[in-house]
């Protein structure tokens, strides 16, 4: 009987089938976006307000790409590893081996410093430090040996940093240091004209600066708030935007305090 149907009816039938298929998908859609570009967004993160853990509220911004918002700017998120609980971000204004840009401060809120600080294997490299820099004097101990790498190596192998060699025969001092140094002293106080940062530094012994991983790796902690129970019931963890009380978001039309169906 199919051949007897007018083309228009077939079209309507097809449309109806499509709609019927679409309905269950719509109903099971989580009220929270679960990706931004190709980066999955899971607890404790959220893009829409009310999704994820309240401690991580307003930290991510999805405008085409995913950005990590701090008081010093929006940093492009390159990846989030939920197993290792780490997120790598890139500061577009930072110098790297291939581009020289004036320093600016990397500032995080107190909450960010507490729950998503730069990882232990992220090293900040202060470049072209003046001889009066605190890290060459009183705070010398804040600089450490980074897998045997030297300023000379950095200034010599990176196109961007060769300029530091140009005007003097000796290379200006640099300092390999940790996030705490830039957290407690602004770039102006540190008195070094440029900086870069490198992550996964445990694997960089004997590896030249051209092959380092430039960016900042953050380690996040996941608040232990019973999100598992909510997830197992099919919900998504979120919170009330007025009270920041925890919610289990079950569908676009129903929330629960602990788990869905209860
Ligand atoms: C459920 O919670 C979300 C996030 O707080 C909120 O946007 C939404 O309006 C709530 N829905 C209902 C039906 O309470
Ligand atoms: C999100 O990040 C972009 C990119 O830096 C920025 O232009 C925009 O203002 C941010 N949006 C919000 C709501 O903060
Ligand atoms: C290096 O630092 C000195 C001041 O200590 C500054 O005059 C010079 O311009 C800096 N070099 C570059 C390439 O920015
Ligand atoms: C929300 O879900 C609970 C448990 O399934 C149910 O008792 C309640 O009637 C639902 N509320 C709405 C507005 O659908």
From TrEMBL:
Q: What is the membrane topology here? A: Single-pass membrane protein
Q: Where is the Wall-associated receptor kinase galacturonan-binding domain?
A: 32-91
A GO cellular component annotation here is: membrane
Please state where this protein is localized: Membrane
Annotated EC: 2.7.11.1
Residue ranges annotated for the Wall-associated receptor kinase C-terminal domain, each copy included: 215-251
- Source organism, top-level taxon: Eukaryota
Signal peptide location: 1-22
Q: Does the keyword Signal apply?
A: yes
A Pfam family annotated for this chain is WAK_assoc
Keywords, comma-separated and alphabetical: Glycoprotein, Signal
Tell me, in one coarse class, where this protein mainly resides: membrane
The answer to whether the entry has keyword Glycoprotein is yes
Q: Which InterPro entries match?
A: WAK_assoc_C (IPR032872), WAK_GUB (IPR025287)
**What is catalyzed by this enzyme?**
L-seryl-[protein] + ATP = O-phospho-L-seryl-[protein] + ADP + H(+); L-threonyl-[protein] + ATP = O-phospho-L-threonyl-[protein] + ADP + H(+)
- Please give the name of this protein: non-specific serine/threonine protein kinase
Q: Which organism is it from?
A: Lupinus angustifolius (Narrow-leaved blue lupine)
